[in-house]
Amino acid sequence: MPRLFIAIHFSASIIEKIQNICFGIPGARWVPQNQMHCTLRFLGECTDSVYYEVVDALQEVQTSAFSLALHNVGYFPPRGNPRILWVGMKQCPGLTDLKSSIDARLKHTGVDDEERKFHPHITVARLKDGTPHTAIVPFITQNSLFQTEPYEIAEFHLYSSILSQHGATHTLEETFPLQ
After folding, report:
1. Active-site position among 9, 37, 157, 170
2. Is 37 marked active-site?
3. Which terminus of the chain, N or C, has fewer Cβ atoms within 10 Å?
4. Does this model's pTM top 0.90?
């Protein structure tokens, strides 16, 4: 059973700007360029029948294309030792509408409801257990004003993911255009 997720991705020029800030933290595993994306919904392991239900549901999403700008950096979890570094996004009604429409369409499939609050971001690094806040303070400080120009989001994607000891391998399964 494949692990599935729904995401948007960004132009090479936007990803290059992100890559330019990805350094300076000992023990960080920086995310490769080709895997940088904003996850809209993680679906987990799905049977073939659920996969086809998901594809059919996502074909019914009818929202307009929108512009999205990246803004700020941060980490998860907000309390305790950091585990994930991320680049955030400016508030965007188009992104909110897309997420809401996807969630509404998936209610009628074999996919469980989302439990976590949606926090749009691009994961840029995974940190070793026990990485102290002091190790990431310079990164956060140096990049606190990070932002990009708005980028047109005209489609979203369904990906499968296979985990291995070397990390995840993502495969593009389907693309869904926005209006």
Report:
1. 37
2. yes
3. C
4. yes
